[in-house]
Amino acid sequence: MTDKPTRRDLMRPAQLLGLAFIAAVFAGAVTFLSMGGFERLPADEIQQALTMALVIAGITFIVVVVVIALLVLAIDPAQVVERHDHPVLIPETKPAPDAGAEASGDLPAAPDPAEGDDPADGDDPAEGDAPAAS
Q1: What number of H helices and E strands is found in the chain?
Q2: 128 conformational bin, left if phi > 0, alpha if psi -120 to 50, beta if neither
Q3: Is the pLDDT of residue 32 over 90?
Q4: What are phi and psi of 8, to 5 degrees?
């Protein structure tokens, strides 16, 4: 058995349908109350309020099921167990090749300003982006 959760473990169908049902009941109740379902109105107006509440509840149920199912599909189950200790919008930086110097508190050496760019390295700014002639 692996410790990694599966997509089914992330959101079980009963949880998905239960959350959608709760949202639908809430939307239907708000619609029914806002249309005056419990006021002393003629029976046809109460019937219209009940019909509208059921329609709104059905639409809400379907929308919530689809949206949550799509959001669950966007999650990689392997990444759920990983710990993320970096900002979300800033890309993760790779550690320096000399990890021992950083661990001991030493800073990496600054480049020597006396060393100029080597003209043989091919980074001549005068060349531009033109391809090399062969």
Answers
A1: 5, 0
A2: left
A3: yes
A4: -70, -35
